[in-house]
Amino acid sequence: MKIDKESIKKIAHLARLEFDESSAEKMSKDMSQILDWVEKLNELDTEGVEPLTTMSSEVNDMREDKVGNHLDHEAGLKNAPKRDSDYFRVPKVLE
């Protein structure tokens, strides 16, 4: 599939990318190759193949959620260096 420069400019605008004319030509060529490769993948028979959700062989060790003990807000605020009635006071991070 051939991607023209106008499509590249539109995609670049949507992705907030900026590049010069020579880079647009290279980007057009690269994206066309990627789409050609994806089209080849579409030709494969994937009947009966389970979708791949991760590349990791790790298995999550799931546990059942249980209600446990927790601190009430007075106990949680007891050791706070600064507090304001029922809330922690923290340094300002935004101007």
TrEMBL record:
Its EC number is 6.3.5.-. Pfam families: GatC (PF02686). InterPro entries: Asp/Glu-ADT_sf_sub_c, GatC. Signal peptide: none annotated. GO terms for molecular function: asparaginyl-tRNA synthase (glutamine-hydrolyzing) activity; ATP binding; glutaminyl-tRNA synthase (glutamine-hydrolyzing) activity; transferase activity. One of its GO terms (biological process) is glutaminyl-tRNAGln biosynthesis via transamidation. Gene3D superfamilies: Glu-tRNAGln amidotransferase C subunit, N-terminal domain. Keywords: ATP-binding, Ligase, Nucleotide-binding, Protein biosynthesis, Transferase. It catalyses: L-glutamyl-tRNA(Gln) + L-glutamine + ATP + H2O = L-glutaminyl-tRNA(Gln) + L-glutamate + ADP + phosphate + H(+); L-aspartyl-tRNA(Asn) + L-glutamine + ATP + H2O = L-asparaginyl-tRNA(Asn) + L-glutamate + ADP + phosphate + 2 H(+). The keyword Ligase applies. Belongs to the GatC family. Heterotrimer of A, B and C subunits. Allows the formation of correctly charged Asn-tRNA(Asn) or Gln-tRNA(Gln) through the transamidation of misacylated Asp-tRNA(Asn) or Glu-tRNA(Gln) in organisms which lack either or both of asparaginyl-tRNA or glutaminyl-tRNA synthetases. The reaction takes place in the presence of glutamine and ATP through an activated phospho-Asp-tRNA(Asn) or phospho-Glu-tRNA(Gln). PANTHER family: GLUTAMYL-TRNA(GLN) AMIDOTRANSFERASE SUBUNIT C, MITOCHONDRIAL (PTHR15004:SF0). This is Aspartyl/glutamyl-tRNA(Asn/Gln) amidotransferase subunit C. It comes from Algoriphagus formosus.
